[in-house]
Structure formats: structure tokens, C-alpha cells
Amino acid sequence: SARDLQGHGSHTASTAAGSVVKDASFYGVARGIARGGVPWARIATYSVCGLTCSSADVLAAFDDAIADGVDVITISIGRRSAVDLDRDTIAIGGFHATKRGILTVHSAGNGGPDPATTASVAPWLLSVAASTIDRKFESKVVLGNGKIFTGSSVNGFTENGEELPLLYSINGKIGCTTICQPGCCDSRLVKGKILICDSINGQFLALQAGAKGVVFPYVELDTASVVSLPAAGMDPKRFDAIASYQNSTKNPVAKILKSDTVTDPRAPAVAFFSSRGPNVIVYAILKPDVSAPGVDILAGWSPVASLSDDPNDKRQYHFNVLSGTSMACPHVAAIAAYLKSLHPNWSPSAIKSAIITTGN
Length: 360
Description:
This protein has 360 residues and is of the alpha/beta class. Helices cover 25% and strands 21% of the residues.
């Protein structure tokens, strides 16, 4: 089916060339004007991945795009590690596109921060890493004692001001060290409460059991995760402080506020997850080639796709916030398309050179 059941394709396509939309947001978070890089361009999308991405389907999409006469290909799909170029599906497809004057822009991968993790290594591909932008999202947890802890999440829920009981452990239940374990998240105990979970995945169990909120440890603080109920990720020190309050207070309560949009003065910086070089296949060619915005990117979303990867999250919305080199890739493809419109006779190498040599 051509229907976007995952949302990823809608997000990347709208980033490259989506129309101008006023008053776009994620449930009021990150409100503003949204637009793709070249909103006057035409988009051809090719659905190549179901549960897996087969090499045959990826190459078929390259063949179709070349036959359809596209000017630029952006592909936010990749391997987990680099392979020889004659076995690299995207390198092969990109080579055929290059021969026909079409530049292929490719996501570098999300295997960072370890070195030599990028799988996009072919010299003819424009390989894109992900960097932060000067906007980030913060979520605050207010404890019953008045202390406020700032964490990270994309929390569009509006239950502001409602203090709820705070729960962490289950005394006496065998095998249950915390409330957010399979078989331990008893709806009779957690319904209507805010849970302290030892993992971000605890929110899935919490929502299913009827909890009203979650606090979880989150060390990847240069990105924010879309949550399926009011929730906030905390660095280990703040997480431990909230857990300590719960353990030392007779009737602990807390409230979780809707996410705020704030300025990140450290941006731009390469995201921790972005795959690094060096190029382990073609040693003389530096990879990735450039970085582009790939953290907390608001873009279009399929209304039938899950917003948070939680099967119990039934919300439907036309926008979502994602992070990854998948999000960075279409930013650069938009620049390439703009250059191609100004210089229709430029080769893929000329466009790639212009982008790389003018980046800063």
C-alpha cells in the first residue's frame, strides 16, 4: 500500500518540500509557521519499506525515480554498518542516479556517538549527519514540597495544575522492584497516579494500566521524546531526587506541566546519536559530508500513524516531532533542489561541492 502507516515518509517529505502552514504545532508545542525547504517543488514519494526494507524494493524505487525524471533523490534509509560498495544497495542505486545527473542525498545513520559508525560511505552520495537547532523542549515536574525539576519530553498534554499521588515501588510484591515492570503495573494500584519508572518504556505499561503520568530517567538530553501520556525524562541526578522525595514523604504528590519551547544557546552541535566517521570502506573520502538540522524537527505526519510508538496511544495528528539523520537528510535535499532550479545544468558533483564548500 502507498498509505503511510508509520509517518516517517510524510515527515521527511514535508521537511523537504511541504507547503507553508500557519499556526502549525504539536498540540500547541513549537507553534509557528511550518514550511518545507522548497515548498514550490513537486514531490514524488516511493513506498519501499514494510516491516523490512528489501534490497530489491529499494533498487526498484531508484529505478522508478530515475525513470520519472526527478532532479534530486533524498533517501532516509540506511544500513547499520558500512559494507563494500558493490554490496551496498543505496550506493548502487545512487550510482545509477548520478550517471543520469541526479544527486542522491542520504542519511548518515543513527549509530553515534561511536566512531566509524556511518554506513553512508560512497563518494557519489551526499551523506548527512544530524545537528541540533536553537529550539528545544523542556518539561517540568512540580513536587508537593514546591521543588521544580526540569526535564525533557515532547508533552502536549494539558493537565496543568493537577496534583496527583506519586508512586514508585510496590512493597511486598515478589519480583517487583518498581511499578513499571511487566506484571507489576497493577491498574488497581496505579490508576490516576503519576509513576516513577526506571525506563522510558515504562510509559507504555503506565498508560495501559490507567496511570496519569510518568517520570523516567533520560540521559539523551539533546533530544526530546514524544510521550504517550503526561511525562518527563530526567537526568539521573534529578530522577534520584524525585525518587528520594517519594520515598521520604508520607503522601507524595506531583504535577507534570505541558512542555515549554526554549532556546538552546549551544546549537548547532552534532547530535549524540548521529553516526560518525571515519569512512571504513573508502579511507580517502571523509564521511559524513555535512550536518543539518535533525533534532526535534516538527513536520507533517500521517493521521493513521502512531505518534509515540505506543500501541495504546490512539491520538491522531497532522504534525509530529522526530529526531534523527532521517530528519537532517531532507533539509540538504531541499538545498540541492534549490540549487538545481537556479543552475539546471550543474552536475550532481557540482551541487554537492557547492553545498560542502560553503557550509559553516
